[in-house]
Design goal:
The chain has a single domain, classed as Spore Coat Polysaccharide Biosynthesis Protein SpsA, Chain A. It is built from 8 helices and 10 strands. It is α/β, with parallel strands linked by helices. Strands 1-4-3-2-5-8-6-9 form an 8-stranded mixed β-sheet, with helices on both faces. The protein has a two-stranded parallel sheet with strand order 7-10. Helix 1 links the parallel strand 2 and strand 3.
Length: 288
């Protein structure tokens, strides 16, 4: 018996993100058949990041060298309705790169909306998302990508894993993130150390089945929750998180915190209702 609740996954192939409100450049001709390298897509969501783009280019050059001949990289840059010239700066900075696609949202949707737009546009089954500010060094994909084996739906970076590290992040933000992770661990069937990292490797077909309701920062945890209730396999990889070097965070701390508390409340209610339904079904089978 299926419940009508916020964590329900869509049965169709489309996500809930309004892709019709995005404008994409023509997709470049790209065929991975000419190489033995594994084709992957790297999504870079950007919102008012004009100050960070020069660092992003240098970091992605290092990432290309780091991943070497093992992977064929395709980049999708999603400009989330920036007002500071990010769109033009991206096209100028990466004009000489092959296998790049640029997408502009007509209105701001939030980081999860940008990631889901990138996933929908990706030409590969294996898709990665990184932070434009490179607070996670994208070269750490060397450790995440090999964990995306058959049957795995998502690999998440985990700075709060016992083998992970956090560098130069304010203590209050660290305590907040660890506290949220502890609450999600109690509520969700997936027992992880980190639930809110945007640095991930996805199986595209699994993500396209989700019905994401919140397209902002909260949606990062929501996608994990939806996968958990679908019985998806999620693998955690220890990683290093650093404070951003350029620009400033777009997260509204108080609003995001209240959003997490609301989502956790919804998850608790769903688990209680789901448990009752299963108990009723078990009782009916016993009576028969």
């Amino acid at each position: 018996m299926e419940q009508n609740h916020p964590m329900n996954a869509a049965t169709g192939p489309e996500t809930n993100v309004p892709h019709s409100q995005a404008v994409a450049d023509a997709k470049p001709e790209w065929s991975p058949l000419s190489t033995k390298a594994v084709p992957i897509t790297i999504i870079v969501p950007c919102y008012n990041e004009v100050e960070s783009i020069h660092l992003l280019r240098e970091t992605l050059l290092h990432t290309q060298r780091s991943l070497g001949p093992s992977y064929l990289l395709h980049f999708v840059f999603v400009n989330d309705a920036s007002s500071d010239g990010t769109s033009a700066k991206l096209r100028e900075t990466f004009a000489d790169w092959e296998h790049c696609q640029f997408i502009d949202h007509c209105r701001n949707q939030g980081i999860t909306g940008a990631i889901m737009t990138g996933i929908a546009a990706a030409p590969t089954e294996i898709v990665c998302s990184i932070d434009c500010d490179c607070s996670y060094d994208p070269s750490q994909l060397r450790e995440l990508l090999p964990l995306m084996k058959d049957g795995v739906d998502l690999v998440t970076a985990s700075p709060y894993h016992p083998l992970g590290r956090v560098q130069h992040v304010p203590r209050w933000r660290l305590l907040l993130s660890r506290g949220l992770s502890a609450m999600y661990r109690r509520v969700l069937p997936l027992k992880l150390f980190t639930y809110t990292s945007c640095f991930r490797v996805y199986r595209r077909s699994s993500m396209m089945m989700l019905d994401v309701q919140d397209t902002g920062f909260l949606g990062v945890a929501e996608t994990m929750a939806q996968l958990a209730f679908r019985g998806a396999k999620v693998v955690e990889c220890p990683a290093i998180l650093q404070s951003r070097v350029c620009g400033h965070s777009k997260m509204k701390i108080v609003r995001t915190m209240w959003g997490h508390l609301r989502l956790l409340t919804q998850l608790v209610r769903y688990r209680i209702a789901d448990r009752k339904i299963k108990q009723q079904g078990h009782g009916a089978r016993v009576r028969r």
